[in-house]
Specification:
CATH superfamily: Nucleoside phosphorylase domain
Number of domains: 1
Number of helices: 5
Order of helices and strands: EEEEHEEEHEEHEHEH
Number of strands: 11
Mean pLDDT: 90
Helix content: 25-40%
């Protein structure tokens, strides 16, 4: 993989398949099987950026079948040290409105059966996810959103559900009762796997709707994939502006401890 290199990785989600122009696409083999698609490599603000659509270009891979380990490993093979993971999300709280951006600082995992670690032995390894998102990238992301006049919440907890189905009304009410902020299907184990590899990771959750069962959903209309994609497309331009500004402001040297994630993970 020495022929190809990138400084920053971006995982695109629903409605976010056209991010870079004038790119070179490369297929990367991994020990964990094939990634979701070819990686597109281009340049933003003088930095080499690798973009990989989580669900594949044609949206053929549902969230519970994404090969997250292969996707992360592909970024590692390219030399990526920072990853930005924008995603569509539903709001669980009245003060978080469709069109807002949430720079999450915590996740709650409600998925099952996903391959969520690179360390399956023989050396037992416990990488702490206590603070799962890179503090340096989170700060820069908030600043980028404010600079682009995008409504932004500086922190928030994202609950990750299995998918591909959306929540029942009762489930949504439960998540909201815990004080969790937004809901999504892909943030786990993507962000945690980045931490296992010592790669900085930041999530930008673009709110597309109020989750079903929310009193702030005036018509109490169930969430649909079509509506999520439509809302995402309406806000794609401002998200791209935030991403480009964020990428441009990321310093060459890391000022965080993400690279040391393994330092206390083994006995």
């Amino acid at each position: 993989m020495a022929k190809y290199h990138a400084d920053i990785g971006v995982f695109g989600g629903t409605g976010f398949y056209k991010f870079l122009n004038n790119v070179e696409e490369v297929w990367i083999e991994t020990p964990y099987g094939p990634p979701s698609d070819k990686v597109a490599i281009g340049e933003v603000g003088g930095k080499r950026v690798a973009f990989l659509p989580r669900h594949g270009k044609e949206h053929t891979i549902p969230p519970h079948l994404i090969n997250y380990r292969a996707n992360l490993w592909a970024m590692k093979e390219l030399g990526v040290s920072r990853i930005i993971g924008p995603c569509a999300a539903g709001s669980l709280q009245p003060h978080i409105k469709p069109g807002d951006l949430v720079v999450t600082d915590q996740f709650v995992n409600r998925t099952w059966g996903r391959r969520d670690t690179f360390y399956e032995g023989p050396v037992v390894t416990h990488v702490s996810p206590a603070d799962p998102y890179c503090p340096e990238l989170r700060k820069l992301a908030v600043e980028a959103a404010k600079a682009e006049n995008v409504p932004v919440h500086e922190r928030g907890t994202i609950v990750v559900i299995q998918g591909p189905r959306f929540s029942t009304r009762a489930e949504s009410q439960e998540y909201r009762s815990h004080g969790w902020d937004v809901i999504n299907m892909t943030q786990y184990p993507e962000g945690y796997l980045a931490r296992e590899l010592g790669i900085c990771y930041v999530n930008l959750a673009l709110v597309t709707d109020y989750d079903v069962g929310s009193v702030d959903n005036p018509d109490d209309v169930p969430v649909s994939h079509e509506a999520v994609v439509a809302a995402f497309q309406q806000n794609i331009e401002k998200l791209q502006k935030v991403l480009f500004r964020l990428i441009e402001t990321i310093p060459a040297a890391r000022g965080c401890q993400c690279a040391d994630a393994l330092s206390a993970a083994r006995g």
